[in-house]
Amino acid sequence: MKTMLKKLLFFMLVLPLSVLAQNTLSGKVTDASSNQAMSGVSVAITGTTNGTFTNSDGTFTLKNVKSGDNVSFSFLGFKTETIAYTNQQNISVSLQQDGQGIEEVVVVGYGKVKKKDATGAVTQISAKDFNKGATPTVENLLNGRVAGVQISTGGDPGSSSTIRIRGGASLSANNEPLIVIDGLPLQNSSDGTPSGSRNFLATIDPTTIESMTVLKDAASTAIYGARASNGVILITTKKGSKKLSVEYNFQYGSGQNKRKIDVLNAAEFVNAIESKFPNLTNQLGIDDPNSTLTDNLATPGVIEGRILSNTDWQDEIYKKTDYVVNTINLGGSLFNMIPTRVTASNTYQEGLVLTDKFNRTNFGLALSPSFLDNHLKVNVNANYSNEKNKFAVKPIGAALRMDPTKPVLSGNSAWGGYTEFLAPNTTTNQLASGGTRNPVGNILLNSSLSNVNRFFGNVQVDYKFHFLPELRAVVNVGMDQSEGNGTNTTYANSAVAFSILDGTVQSNKLGTNESYSSNLTNKLFDGYLNYAKKFGKLDLDATAGYSYQKFEQTRYNSGNSFNPNRNEDTYKAPDLVLLGFFGRTNFTWSDKYIISLSYRKDGSSRFPPSKKYGNFPGASFAWKVNKDFFKESNLISDLKLRAGWGVTGQQDLFVNDFFIPRYQTSNSDSQYTFGNTPIIVGSPLAFNDQLKWEQTTNYNAGIDYGFWNNRISGSVDVFYKLSEDLLFKNAPFADGSNFSNQGPQNVGSFTTKGIEFNVNADIFRDTNFKWNVNFNASTYERRIKNLPSGNNVFDGNIGGGTGGKIQILSEGWTPNSFYVYNQLYNLDGTPIEGAFADINGDNIVNENDRYIFNNPDPAALLGFQSSMSYKNVDLSFNMRASLGNKNYNNVNSANAYTTLLSDVGGTIANVPSSTFDSNFTSSGNNVIFSDYYIEDASFLRVDNITLGYTFPQTATRKSTIRFTAGLQNPNFLLFTKYSGLDPEVFGGIDNTIYPRQEQFLLGVNVKF
Prior knowledge:
Structural class: mainly beta
Radius of gyration: 34 Å
Shape: globular
Strand content: over 45%
Helix content: under 10%
Distance between the termini: 60 Å
C-alpha cells in the first residue's frame, strides 16, 4: 500500500512536467528559396482548431500539442508542410513555393516534358512572370518576354495584335501562330473572329491563364503539322485545387492621349492661308453675324468679318479614358472530392476616340477529379464570355485636316449642331460640295454596337490502365461556339450620311441602318495512347493518336436598309475539316542523351483529293553536357546542347473551295433570250485543282546554360527556315488557262535565318532584397528565293495622290521592302521637289528608276524585364526595343503639301507642320514615292512600371492584401527619332494609326 502511494505521489509530481514537455512546440519557418523568415504562416494541429501564426521574425509557439499529432504549416502560394510531433521542443521548417513545379515541367503538343529534357526551342512563361499592368487580352501577357516573338498591338480598346514568331513563314497566306487553349486549337484568322468582336482573342479572360508556352522550331511544332509553320502558342488555364481559396482582383486605370501629329495651330494656319491662298481667307473661321466686312489683305493676321476659333481637332476627338477590371476566383474541393475553380470577371476599357468602348464579362469553370485510385483523371474546362462593343468611327485623318479656326459647334441645329463647310451664300445650310467634314460630328452622329456570346471548353479523360500502368489512353473533346451580331447606324443629320440625291442638302440625307451577324463553330476530337516506361538506363515515352477538327461558319449582312439598291448577303462558308494522324517517341539514355522523333500526316478539305494529305516529320537531339563533364562543378549547373530538324505545313489560304470547279449565276449583261424570255445562265469561276500544302523545313541548334545553381540561366538558338510551294492568294495564271487572270496557286519560296539569346538572372535572391532580371534578344533575316514566273509583286497600299503601292516582293530581297525613287537634295540639304536620281542611267527618270530601299523588318528585337522586392515592397518594369526597322511616313507623304491648304469645293484644310520642312507643293511627279518618306523607326519603350506593397497573413488576418500603382505606356519613356505619331507600326506603312494611350493604374489583390 505504501509503495502504491509513493508511486502515485511520484506520478503526480512528474505529470505536470511531462505535460509541459509534450504540450509546447516552438520553432521558425523560412522560405526555402531565399532562407528568409516568413511571417503570417498558419501553424495548426491537423484535424483540430488549435493553431497559431508565425511572428514577423518567422518564429512561433504552439501549445497543447500531444505526441503523435500532425502539425501543418501553410501559407498562400507555398506548399503545405506536415510534420509529426514526437516531443520535439524546437523545430525549423522550410516551405517550398507552390509555383516551382511550373518551372520544372513545360507543356508541349499532346503532353508535357520536364524542362531539363526539352530538345526543341521551347519557352514557357508562367503567371508570376506575365507582364503587369493593363492586359485586356491574353497576348499582352507575353509581349517582349520571349526571344524571337514579336507582338504589335494597336491602340483600340481590346485591340487585335499581330503576332510573329521568327518572322513568320509565308508571304501571302496566314502568318499568325497556331494558338491552342487547353488542347483546343483556335482558328486564328478573320474566319475565326465572330462578327462584332474586336479580335478572336478578345473574348478570353487573361486572369484565367496559368502559363503560356511558345514552340518555335519544327522539332517541337511538327506534331501539330497542319498549322505549325508559324509556330505554336500553348495556353494552359488555371485548374481547381483541393484547398479552399478565394482571390479578388481589382484594377482601375485612367488614360489619356500624349502623342499627336504636329499640324498647324490657328495662328499658323491663318498665316499659311494668307501667304499661299489669300483669295480663301474668307473661308477661315465662321461668319460674324455682326459684321458685313470681308477680309482686308492689308491687315495680315486679322481676318475681318470672321470669327476665328483655335480648335485642336485631335484633342476634340480624343478623350480621357477609364479602365476597370474586377475578377473573383474561387478554388476548392467540391463534395470533398472534385478540385474546382470558378472564375467571374468583368473588363471595361474605353478607347481614346470618343464613344469607343469595350466591355467583356467572363465566367469560367474548371473541374479536375480523379477516380479509381488516380487511374482515371478527368479535366473539364468551360468558359463563357460576353463581349459588348461600341465601335467608334475613326476620322483621325479628318482631325488632321479640319480647319483649326472653325469651332466644333455651329450654334444652330443644322447638321446635328456641328460646324461644317457650307456652300457660298447658302440660306439653307447646304454643305459645300467638298472639303473635310467635322470629325466630332462624324463620330457622335454614328452608333455602332455589337454583342458577342462565346462558349469554349473541353473535356479530357486520361485513363492509366490497371493491368499496364505504363500505358495511358487520352481522349480530348472540345468545342468553340460563338454568335455575334451588331448594328451600324449613321443618323440622317450627319454630314457624311448616305444619300441618293444631292448629299449636300440635309433633307436628302437618308443615313445608314445596317445589321450583321455570325455563327461560328469549332469542333475537336483528339484521341491518343501514351506509353512511358524505364528500361534500365533507357527512358521510353511514346505517343500515337488521331485528331479531327471541323470549322463551320455562317455570316449575314443586311446592307443599308435605307438604300433601295442594297446588297443583302447571307454567306455559308464551305466547312473546313482537318484530319491528323500523329506520333512521337522520346528516348532518354542515362538522363544524358535524348532523342525525340515525331511524325504527323495531315489532311485538309481545302485541297483536292490527290493533294489532300501532307507529311510532317520532326527529329531532335539533346545532350546534357554537364552530366558528363561538370558533375561536381559549382559553377556550371546546366549545360545542354540541342539540335533539331522538321517540316511543318500551311493550308490557311482564306478560301476553302478554290480547287472545285464552280459556277455563278450571270448578271443582266450575260443572259440568253429565247423568244421574249431572258434566261439566266451559269458562268464558270476560276479554280485550281493543283493546290497543295505549303511546307516549311526548319533547322535549329541551341544551347541551354545555367551557372551557380541556375542563378544565371538562359539559352542561345540559331535557326534556318526554308518555305516552299508558297500559297499565293493571287498569282497570275497563264493566258487562256483559267477563267480569271489570277488566283490562288503554289508558287515561290523564301528563307529565314536568325539568332536568339535569352538570359535570366537572380542578382539578389538570398537576402531581404531580391532582384531578378530577364533579357532577350533576337535577329532574323528574310530573303525571297523564287516568285511566280520570277516577276516582282507589288504590295503595300498607300493613301494620298492617286494612291499606289510602296512595297515590293522581289527575288533576293526581304519581303515587303520599300520600292521608291532616290530623292535628290539641294546643297543646303533640303529636298528638290520631283527630282530623283536616274538609277539606270538612260537619261530618263521614270518607273524604271525606282529601287529597293530598306524594309520594315527590325535588325534586332530586344526585351528586358526587372522585378525587385525588399521585404513587402516590390517594383517591376518591362521594356522593349526594336532596332533598324523602317517606316514609310504616309501621313506626311499624303498630306504635307502646300497646295492641300486649298481643298475641294473652295474650302480650306490643315496640313502637317512638316510641310514647311520640305516645302513640297503637291504629291505629283511621283513625289509620294520618294525615299524622303522612309524613316528610321527604331525605338526603345517602357511598357509598364508597377510598384506594389503586400500585407501578409497575420494571426488576426487570414488573407494577404497587395496594393499596386503603375504606369502603362508612359510617353516620356518612349525613345525614338521617328517623326510620326508612333514608331511601332506593323508592316511599316504609317497612315493615321490609332494612338496608344498612357495610363495611370491602381490595383488591389486580396487572397484568402
